[in-house]
Design a protein that fits this description.
Length: 302
C-alpha cells in the first residue's frame, strides 16, 4: 500500500528542524512552508536549495495555511512566543491541524493556545545528537518520545514509521524531563569526557592521534554497551577493584582540580552502579563489598 504524502510546515530551521523536515521530504512528504526568524542570506539560500517548493518566510504570522502538520523546532525559550504569534493567525483553520513541538522538556501545554483554536497538539522529541544542520540521516532509525493528544499520537506514529524509527509514549511531564536528562547524560557527558581526555594528553600526543585514539576506545565501549547488560561493560581499575591504580590516578590529577572533581564524581557513580548491579544479580561477596567501600572512602577524601 502506498503511504500517503502529508503536507507539513516547519517553524525553526536549526539543526533538529532542518534535519527532520528534510528527512520527511525525502520520505515522500511535502514541505509547504518554512518559517525562519532572522535568517541571513546564506541560511535562506540553503533553505531554498533544501526545500525547492516550500515557501520561505521570516515570521510565524506569515505561515501558509495549506498544511496538515506543523512542526515547531525553535529553541525552548522561543516556543511560547511562537505559539502566541501563530494563534493570532486567523486565516489558518487550526481545527484541521496537528501541531508538534520538538522540545524534550517544555510541557505539551505550552501549545494550549492552538489547542483552544481546535488543533491537536503533542511533543515529539528526537532522541539523537544533531551536531549539524541539514543532516536528514540523523532523524532516521532513532527513537522519538511523544506526549500529547491521541489524534496527534497517531500522526507521531506515522512519522516515526515513515522514518524507520521507534516511538516511546510518555504519560506525564516528569517522565519527559527524566528521559531528557538521561539523554543529556549519555550524549553530552560523553563529549565532555572524551574532549577532556584529549586535552589531558595534548602536551605529548599529537591532536590527530589523540582524537583517533579516543574515538577507537569509545567505539569499543559502545560495542560493549550494545552487547552487554548492567555494568558488565565497565573495564579498568573500577571494574577490577584496583585501589592502587585509582590512588595513582587521583595523585596525578592533583594539579587539575576540575578534572579531578569530574574523575571522582563519575567514579562514585560507577561504584554505586556496581554495588546495585552485584546486589541485583546475587553476586555480592564480602571482599567485593569491602573493596568498593574502600574505593568510596578514597574518592571522598578531600
Amino acid at each position: 500500500m502506498t503511504r500517503r504524502a502529508i503536507p507539513f510546515s516547519l517553524v525553526g530551521a536549526g539543526r533538529v528542524g532542518s534535519s527532520l523536515a528534510m528527512s520527511l521530504e525525502q520520505s515522500g512528504w511535502e514541505c509547504k512552508c518554512v518559517v525562519i526568524k532572522g535568517g541571513g542570506r546564506p541560511q535562506l539560500t540553503r533553505l531554498k536549495s533544501a526545500f525547492h517548493d516550500a515557501e520561505i518566510v521570516d515570521h510565524p504570522s506569515l505561515v501558509c495555511s495549506d498544511f496538515k502538520i506543523l512542526l515547531i523546532a525553535v529553541q525552548d525559550d522561543e516556543i511560547q512566543n511562537v505559539v502566541a504569534e501563530l494563534s493570532a493567525v486567523r486565516r489558518v483553520d487550526w481545527s484541521s491541524k496537528v501541531v508538534f513541538h520538538s522540545s524534550g522538556v517544555k510541557k505539551v501545554g505550552i501549545l494550549s493556545p492552538l489547542k483552544k483554536l481546535g488543533a491537536d497538539i503533542g511533543g515529539l522529541h528526537p532522541i539523537a545528537a544533531f551536531a549539524n544542520e541539514y543532516q536528514p540521516a540523523a532523524a532516521r532509525g532513532i527513537y522519538y518520545d511523544f506526549a500529547g493528544d491521541k489524534p496527534a499520537e497517531s500522526f507521531a506514529r506515522e512519522i516515526t514509521k515513515l522514518l524507520s524509527s521507534r516511538l516511546i509514549i510518555l504519560r506525564n511531564e516528569r517522565q519527559r524531563v527524566l528521559l531528557h536528562i538521561a539523554s543529556a547524560i549519555a550524549s553530552n557527558s560523553t563529549v565532555v569526557a572524551v574532549r577532556s581526555a584529549e586535552d589531558l594528553i595534548s602536551s605529548f600526543v599529537d591532536p590527530c592521534d589523540a582524537k583517533a585514539m579516543m574515538a577507537g576506545l569509545l567505539k569499543s565501549t559502545v560495542e560493549n554497551l550494545s552487547a552487554n547488560s548492567g555494568m558488565k561493560s565497565l573495564t579498568g581499575p573500577l571494574a577490577r577493584g584496583d585501589i592502587g591504580v585509582i590512588s595513582t590516578h587521583i595523585k596525578a590529577l592533583e594539579s587539575e582540580s576540575s578534572l579531578l572533581q569530574f574523575y571522582k564524581s563519575w567514579s562514585l557513580l560507577a561504584v554505586d552502579l556496581l554495588l546495585k548491579d552485584k546486589a541485583d544479580k546475587g553476586r555480592y561477596s564480602r571482599d567485593e563489598h569491602r573493596t568498593l567501600k574502600e574505593i568510596i572512602k578514597l574518592l571522598e577524601e578531600k
